[in-house]
Amino acid sequence: MRLHDIFFWFACFFLAGVLVASIASGFANPYWISALLILVLSVGIFVIRRKWLFVGSVSLVILSLVVGSLYFFAFDAWRQPEPIPYGQKVEFSGIVSDQEQRIDGQKIVVGNIQLAAPRYPEYKYGDEIKVTGVIKTVEGDWENYFKKENIAGLMGFPEIELISRGNGSKIKFALLEVKAFFISSFQKVLPFDKAAFMSGLVLGETAEFSDEFKEKLRATGTSHLVALSGYNIAIIASTVANLLSLWWFTKRFTFAGSTLLIFAFVLMTGGEASVVRAAIMGFLVLLADRLRRVYYFRNAVAFTALAMVLVNPKVLAFDIGFQLSFMALIGITYLKPLLEKWMKWEGRSGIINWRQNLLTTSAAQVAVLPVILYHFGTFSPIGVLANVLILEFIPLTMGLGFFIAFSFAISPSLALVISWPASILMGYELGVISFFAKILSIF
Question: Could you tell me how far CA 132 lies from the centroid of its own chain?
Answer without folding.
Answer: 33
